[in-house]
Each structure stands twice: as structure tokens, then as C-alpha cells.
Amino acid sequence: MEMLANDKAPPDGVGSIEPPTVSNRQVLGAVTASCMGWALDLFDLFILLFVAPVIGKLFFPSEHAMLSLAAVYASFAVTLLMRPLGSAIFGSYADQRGRKGAMVVAVTGVGMSTAAFGLLPTVGQVGLFAPALFILLRLIQGVFVGGVVASTHTIGTESVPPSWRGAVSGLVGGGGAGIGALLASITYMTVTMLFPGDAFETWGWRCMFFAGIVSSVLGLVIFNSLEESPLWKQLQATKTHAKLEAHPIRTLFSQEYRGILLVNILLTIGGGSAYYLTSGYLPTFLKVVMKVPAGESAALLMVSSLAVIVASVAAGHLSSLVGRKRSFLLIGATALVLLPLLYQWLPAASTMTARFVYTASLSMLGCAGFAPILIFLNERFPTSIRASGTGLSWNIGFAIGGMMPTLASLIARTPADLPHVLGVTIGAVTLLYLAGALIVPETTGRLGDS
After folding, report:
1. Residues forming a β-bridge with 101
2. Is residue 426 within 8 Å of 339, Cβ to Cβ?
3. Which of 37, 78, 72, 60 has its CA nearest to residue 281?
4. Measured between alpha carbons, how far is 431 from 130 in angstroms, rounded to an integer?
5. Does the predicted TM-score (pTM) go above 0.70?
């Protein structure tokens, strides 16, 4: 049995092209590689979020605990700011030379740079040189992270039939995030057991970062037998599209696509902000606001990660059933009502069951919003610039969204202020997400452009 990776009808302005035929094995390999590549990438990023309070003490010490925490999240935002550069570099390579090569180099680079954090000296050892080294390494890591997005966010959706593109979008974008967070939660639980108490602040946090080596090795194993995207191979075989004459980045910022890029970013800012203010902030919220023990916190985050995988796939598939635009509006309206309330309810939760329900609900709603964004972005660009366009749209929006935890930490004078600050902030960014959803066109079924 074989599947069609392309839509039957060519887009406007493109001649009739026979859709490439893709085997089930190739589909499974592409989806697995795309999902796990993004999961391993986010696993490396989540490690910092899990050890943020410790990193704050060791690299950004301050008498004001919230300022120290804000500095850690600012270093996280620095990585996000470098992601557009990574998308430009690796996205151009993926559009011109293929998705697979870009993915292998980018994922390996993220893992190796993550492991390097475990070797850094602290402020107590080398003074101000320590935070400078930390931020420099974050900048390098950000370039590779941007490259992962450009490759993983295209090869999976380009390889599956139209009816499954929404579900795969959710599986890669939100599901990959959930798997990455789950792996980080398991690592955190294991390391805190091996290095309890003060030992975690001495060696445990370093071992968390050393786990990045594992992600690099896994990435190489997974990608070794990966086949190239069928749509990209079809494009190389025809060589008929006029835009192949121009560099992908130059084409992307031309008058034809500049407006599309800007509108995409509006939507991704909302989706990215919601993600970082929920799944991204939960590890810190549980420890700093609720004083949840490390073991219980890891369990809560693992359950939330599993819930995210289910919710993301469901939200992505919903976009195939009702359309991308309508799914954005439905999910955004639900999040606008529930997310601010959940942050008020969570600190007051008196039972383990209630904490499980609230943390899982926060994570699910935060990720459901961007689950259909991946396929939506893919459908906004032709194959010749898809990796660059998708990568830049996603990374610029998520870079701005990634600043929201830093902003929330600075606004909150004490940890007790965080539930209210986070509720207001997430309500505001959800309104932005809805504004973007109202502006963007429906794109379902438009991936077949070459």
C-alpha cells in the first residue's frame, strides 16, 4: 500500500504535476524523525527551565529572588532571539540542499551545546566571566535551535497525505514539545533522586545538561535511515519554478511574501507566548509559588506532558476537520476564558488530584493553540522557500513569545504575585492570537505548491 504526499489539484499558477508516491515506511520514518527531532531539541531547552532557580543562584545571583529568576529567563529569551538567524541559515540550506542534512547538523549541534553548559564555571569560581560564558553559549545554541525548526517542521508534513497533515502538525509541534518535556521530567526525577538536596546544586544540575549528549546520539541514530522529503525531491526533479533562481531568504522578503510573513508572525507570537507562559513556566511556578517537592513536581509535569501530546494531536486533526482558521478561533476563545482562571485555581489546589487536573489543563490549552500553526505555515509557502518561511515565521513569533516569562517575572514583585500577573499576561497574548486568527486566510489543502 502506498500514500500520496501531495494534493491532487495543483495550486493556482502552477502547471499540472503528478503528485509523488510515498511508501508507508517513508511516511512513518519522516513523521518519526520530524517529531523526535523537535522533541530532542525541546528536551535540551526544557532542561534549563527545570533548573532555572539553581542556575539563577549560581550564574545570576541577586538579593532579590525574582530578579535572579528573571535573569535566567532572559538568558532563555536570548536563545530565542538567535533562532531566526538559525532559520535563515539552515532554512536556506534545507530549501536548496534538502531537509535531511539540515536536520542532522542542527539537532546534533543543539545536543552538544547543551552538554557544554554542564562544564561551565559558576560566579563563585570565576566571577562575572561565568554569566558571560553562559549567555555566549546560549547564543550559539539558539542558532542550532532555529535550524531544527526549519527542517523538522517541514519534512514530516511534506511526506504525509493531506488528511493527516493536521494531526502530524499537532504531533510534531505540540506532541514533540510534550515528548521533550516528558523526557526532561524523567531526567529531572532521576537526577534529583541521585543528587538529593544540596548535592543537586553542586553536581545534579551539571548532569542534567550532560544529558544533551544523549539527544545528539539519538538524533543521529533516528536520522541515519531518513529519506528526503518527496515534495523537495519532486521540486529538484522539475526545476521549473521561477523562484528557484533567487535565494530563498531574498524571495521570502520580496513584496510577494513579506506581508504573508508579517501576518504569520502575529499568530505565532500569540501561540508562542501561551506555550512559554504555561508549559515553559510551570516548572518554576510549581517550585517557587507552590513549593511543591521535586518528586511531586516531576510527576505533575510528566502527566502534563502526556496530556499535551494527546491534546496537540487532537487540536491539529481538528484543523483538518473544520479548517485551520476556525480551529484557531475555537481554541483561542477557550483559552481566553480558561487559562487566566487556571492560574488562580492552581495555587489553591489542596489535593494531588486537583493539582494534576490544573497543571495538565494549563499545559494542554497552552500547546493546543500552536498545534495547527505548523501545517498552517507550511501551507503559506511554496516548496522552494517552505523551510525558510516556516522557520522564520515560527522562530520570530516564538522569540517574542519567549520574552513573556521574563516580563512576568519582572512585573511580579514577589512569588505570590505571579498567579495574577501570569493570568493577566496570558489573557493579553491570547487576544493577540485571536486577532491574528481573524486576519489570516484559510489554507487547508494548499501544500501542493512546488
Report:
1. none
2. yes
3. 72
4. 39
5. yes
The owner of cell 534549563 is: 48
| Local structure of residue 171 (DSSP, 8 states) | I
Quick one: which of 316, 360, 425 has its CA closest to 181?
360
Domain boundaries, the chain: 22-228+247-439
Give tens-digit pLDDT for 327-360: 999 999 999 999 999 999 999 998 889 999 999 9
**Distances from the Cα of 251 to the Cαs of 76, 152, 243, in angstroms?**
30, 21, 7
Residue indicated by cell numbers 525548526: 149
What are the helix (H) ranges across 98-164? 99-117, 123-126, 129-155
Rounded Cα–Cα distance for residues 428 and 328 (Å):
16
Q: Classify residue 203 by its DSSP letter.
A: I
Helix then strand then coil, % of the chain, to nearest 5: 80, 0, 20
The predicted structure's pLDDT at residue 430: 94
The single-letter code of the amino acid at 233 is K
- Taking a C-beta distance cutoff of 8 angstroms, is the pair 176, 35 a contact? yes
Domain range 22-228+247-439, CATH architecture:
Up-down Bundle (1.20)
